[in-house]
Design a protein that fits this description.
This is DUF2938 domain-containing protein. The chain has helices at residues 3-30, 38-49, 67-90, 100-109, 112-122, 134-163. By secondary structure, it is an all-alpha fold.
């Protein structure tokens, strides 16, 4: 596999998996479930560039110009990074014959990023401990990252089928 085909595969899988996750959050919102506002990701990143890592409550922090666009960009960039890490961990052979196990496991394990990095930085505490319903919030994050893992697998299958490997 050439470097360019590897990069394109990772790009396709990362964007596809993130899109599957976004469709999941659209469904949750239609069911009345509160989900992450990506403007807050952009706001956090804007403040991070100014040297501020943690906030008492990111929603109360000073808004940053273009925060919604930056938040969505970072959201998809993170999906690409996770796709690249999955391929780096399981090997490029997975791209010729993807299986669900590694993708789902990787999606579930990736939940530690929001639970142990993003939520504390946003003021929600480790494992959402500073929120009114930490267990519910953790389980929601776990489900969303499980859906992301399914998206990794689904996107890899679509890629393989499109290339005629299967």
């Amino acid at each position: 596999m050439t470097i360019s085909s590897l990069a394109l595969s990772i790009l396709f899988i990362g964007i596809g998996a993130t899109l599957v996750m976004d469709l999941w959050t659209v469904l949750l919102r239609r069911l009345g479930v509160t989900t992450l506002n990506y403007a807050m990701v952009g706001r956090w990143a804007g403040h991070l560039l100014e040297g501020r890592w943690r906030h008492a409550a990111i929603g109360k922090a000073t808004p940053v110009r273009g925060e919604l666009a930056w938040g969505w960009l970072l959201h998809y960039a993170t999906g690409l990074i996770f796709a690249a890490l999955l391929v780096a961990v399981v090997g490029t052979h997975w791209l010729q014959g993807p299986t669900a196990g590694p993708a789902l496991l990787f999606g579930v394990v990736s939940v530690f990023v929001p639970l142990c990095v993003v939520q504390p930085a946003f003021g929600a505490g480790y494992f959402a401990s500073h929120t009114p319903a930490p267990l519910r919030n953790c389980l929601r994050s776990l489900a969303t990252h499980g859906v992301f893992g399914f998206g990794l697998f689904l996107s890899a299958i679509v890629l393989v089928e499109g290339r005629g490997f299967a």
